[in-house]
Amino acid sequence: MNELTRWETLTPLARTRLIRRLRPPRAPVDPECPYGFHHEQERAPDGRLERVNVVFLTNRECPWTCTMCDLWRHTTTAPVTADQILRQLDHALERLPEADAVKLYNSGSFFDRLAIPPAAYRGIAERLRGYRRVIVESHPALLGRRTLQFRDLLDGRLEVAIGVECVHPGVLDALNKRLTVADLERAVAWLHEHALLIRAFILLRPPFLPDEAALDWTCRTVQWAVDRDIQTIVLIPTRTGNGVMERLEQVGRFAPPTPDAIEAAAAFLFAQPAPVRLLDTWDLARFYPCPDCARLQQERFERMNRTQTWEAAVRCPNCTAP
Ligand code: SF4
Ligand SMILES: [Zn+2]
Predict the structure, then answer these.
(1) How does strand 36-43 pair with strand 49-56?
(2) Number of structural domains, the chain?
């Protein structure tokens, strides 16, 4: 598979074809039901510890095909209707408790009209009356008129999560996101100009770099977000599982983050003055060889996310690793 070893020289179309070819099957989804929902607590940019409802809407796959992305697994192959989106939201909200904020994540971009039909915006906003903050995700290229239209329908503040991923120009290109650092700069400036809250997703240990450089660029990307006054910065450990990432690992173009790398990146993040610093703990156990270490670190990072206070590494009674 020598295309994998010369990934940077491939065209976006060639990469897209290869990524799609190497994929495992999609998970079964129902366009009438969100593919998940839960309740959590999270620190808000104004310092409050908020109750947050999280809804994972089922909809058509994102039109980008990023190298590290596995969100397509819970998507449909055809667009869903506005009414289906509203029924999905009703299904989740009827079962979730009262909360201060809501995340509507849709495995892609909320402002992709073939994912969330704009005809659903008004009905969504009506169902979200009373929430202080509404968080959606979007590719920077889809920010614009529809973002402002949705913002104006809401009671609460709109926060837009963007995948900043890695500001190394070559890596950002190789991630197949069809995005440059200049595009990210413009997106962040636009979001600030329209008084929208910003959440940055950053890869903890991007592919295509040796270990030390990968950690360095993780920290540089955090610094980039801090310097641009992004309110919420989330480190997401990069994982395999979408087909192409394990193949890149086999040819030495990727290695999952080690416990030490997670520790170092988290320490850098928590030393920053951003209002909200989060380490995504979803599936964190996979990065730890010892299950007790995994549990202790997961509990610790979840506490740190809530309190926004750094805690020294916990020592596992079964091994010497921190
Ligand atoms: S833009 Fe986001 S959802 Fe779409 S493929 Fe890339 S990472 Fe996945
Ligand atoms: Zn252990």
Answers:
(1) antiparallel
(2) 1
Range of the domain at 21: 2-254
CA distance 289 to 1: 29
Which stretches of the chain are assigned E, i.e. beta strand? 36-43, 49-56, 101-105, 133-137, 157-165, 197-204, 232-237, 276-279
**Ligand 1 environment, Cβ below 6 A:** 62, 64-66, 69, 71, 107-108, 139, 163, 177
Q: CA 44, 46, 51: angle at the middle one, nearest 5?
A: 30
Q: Does any domain span residue 265?
A: no
CATH number for position 244: 3.20.20
pLDDT tens across 91-144, in order?
Answer: 999 999 999 999 999 999 999 999 999 999 999 999 999 999 999 999 999 999
The rounded Å distance from CA 296 to ligand 2 centre is 8
